[in-house]
Amino acid sequence: MKLLSQLRTSSFQLALLYMVVFATSVFLLLAFIYWRTAGFMTAQTDETIEAEIAGLAEQYRGRGVNGLITIIRERVARDPNAKSIYLLTTDDFLKLAGNIETWPEGSRSESGWINFTLNESVGWTGPERLARARIFEVQGGLRLLVGRDVDELTNLKRVIETAINWGMGITLGLALLGGFLMSRSTTRRIEIINNTSRRIMNGHLSLRIPTRGTDDDFDQLAENLNQMLDRIVYLMEGIRHVSDSIAHDLRTPLTRLRNQLENTLMSVDNDEAREQAGRAVAEADQLLATFNALLRIARLETRGNAADMKPVSLDELVTDACELYEALSEDKDQSFEQSLESGVMIEGDRDLLFQMVSNLIDNAIKYTPEHGVIGVAVRKEGAEAIFEVRDSGIGIPDAEKDQVFQRFYRVGKSRSLPGNGLGLSLVSAVAEIHQGRIVLSDTHPGDTPPGLTVTVRMPAFTEARKRIRAAQAEQPADSAGAEARIATESTGAETH
Predict the structure, then answer these.
(1) Which of 25, 106, 470, 487 lies 20 to 30 Å (CA to CA) from residue 34?
(2) CB 86 within 8 A of CB 76
(3) 277 and 264 in contact (C-beta within 8 Å)?
(4) Average pLDDT of the chain?
(5) What is the C-alpha separation between 342 and 339, in angstroms, rounded?
(6) Contact, 364 vs 374, CB < 8 A?
(7) Do 440 and 361 contact (CB within 8 A), yes or no?
(8) Would you give the DSSP letter of residue 122?
């Protein structure tokens, strides 16, 4: 599977294209060499035959037919290996001289050249071989064939062809291997960048893409991306610091203002003034809840994975939260269904987990109409512990499901309801600390209203992990003290 994914990479495809271009160039080069080499050897053979013919023609002009017959016989006698082929016949094909008996069969060119096989059909007594000759007519009605044994030349051509084929195969193999190695090296560096980018997108903003120190294209790309990440983190930290500072600085005067309003509410006798003071106190409480939620989210994000992690029974924790909110559900005459699998353990901070569960149940009750149905479930699927809350409320459009985790984001349908849009931001921060992920889906797809199902998936606390924890508990503690807990007061925040 990994090999197939590498074959689909652009680097391998680029290497494959280079291999095709390189192999084509090598093929054309070898074809040119073969054409020039084979053509030169064939031309040399033809020149030798032409020289033989020129010599015989000169003898014929000086000594006549008898002289021609004599010189042919002499040349045949001096060539026991029969490298040269001769045949002189009369007009009715009666042999006069030569080392073959009859005219060969074969395709004859207009210039008189013929390629044939030396075998029994032409009266050849030796092993079968290939020959090339030229045929022409001599004055007086005689026919003359002069040729050469080209079997060695043909074998040499075959050797060259075989070498070219092997050379092409080796070239393609080496090019393919080189392309694979080159693409694998490139893919490894790209995969490092991708893996680091994915981890950064998952919230590990302190990570940076490693470099090799070679100052090549990948190093320059990594350095530019790292500088961009540094700039983004700097800007994010600046915005977060400003919002956190505002929340922190305004919480104290708001608290004093709220207390003064409450004192005023208790001191006035006029009903209308008491009502106005009561509304002002409620608004101040809402502002304080918003600032507390902002500070809590900021502390969670800063705290990261440094939360006080201990084995927690998820089903027992959810049971406690359900008991707390069941009365609120009864006030709206809602059906509160529970399906809690026992023995589902996770590793986490119980207070933070309780706040996450409480927020989700509170929102389900808030956005489910009277006589609606709310379902709470806990189960284990493989290596994951699942906490799920279902409601039959207004739901969240698919286009906005990824945006509700942003601070202060509220779905249009819920803007008329009380809240500040920080509920799911807090839930998301707690889930991230516990290496969990949140999935939003419709409870009743296609219905109106569709409802909302919030599924939180977290790593289950396995028996092997329990034994590791037990072994660590027997060792002396490394830290001098535990980190202070985050307050778990109700935020009054909502998700939609």
Answers:
(1) 106
(2) yes
(3) yes
(4) 78
(5) 10
(6) yes
(7) no
(8) G
